[in-house]
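Supplementary Text 2. Reproducibility record for the structural model of the 285-residue chain.

All settings were left at their defaults, and a single model was retained for analysis rather than an ensemble. We include the record here because the model underlies the residue-level annotations in Supplementary Table 4.
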Amino acid sequence: MAAIGFSLVSAALFGALSVTLGLAMRRTRDADAGAQATVLVALLVCGLTALATRSWRGEIWPFLLAGLVAPGGSQLLYVHAVREAGAARTSVVVGAAPLVSVTIAVAVLREPVRPGLVVGAVLIVAGGLALAGERDRPQRFRAAGLLLAFASASLFATRDNLVRWLAESSQTPPQLAAAATLVSGSAFIALYVLLRTGCNFPRRVLAAFRPFALSGALWGLSYAALFEAFYRGRVTVVSPLVATEALFGVLIATFVLGRSELIGRQVVVGALLVVAGGVLIGAFR
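Retained model, structure tokens:
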């Protein structure tokens, strides 16, 4: 039951994250600096949580490597996706992570293909098609944002499987493990932004802290809850529940961002199909 609770808390906070990123993008379109600011604030939150547990044991290097995948690559893609496609639509696409996760399991780990998995995959694809078939979209919408969101979801799914595999044999406490992934993820993003911006790196990141600070705090709390969930439950339980962030993101975006997101019936239907598909995959995997 603890794994379920932490998974749902993580999902709700992650759904709120996409909305706050959308709000931040109204103040600045600097997605690279925004990604760096959010990961640094998230690292502060998880670092303080790890210090509060007063539990420092085990090896952290495997989690440092995992952090290069997510949040290293995934957060960069995610922030850019929100900028290009909007908060609600990005949340729906990222909710497809269970499909990527089970694809990895079938192709790499040779897990058996069951009818429930196929139906779940079809539902998630149908949710994506519902988004693709939209006619009314925000003026700033760019279809490339949906591709960025799916790439981010793929990295999230890879991280989920990797962290759960490490958690089964690791003595490293969950909050220390979460902080370790954020350390390497932050370093990866910093290197990327530095190479792109050069001498402007400090100024741009400092300017991004104010608009992106709330996003970073929500993400840090979501991340802390996610690792607690993975240390208590299987990926097949945690990943589909975390995928409900698609619904949370759409609902929160509807109330907070209003008509600027142009959230119509197809976005809501897409979110419902994606979540239903994720639940089926989790149930039958």
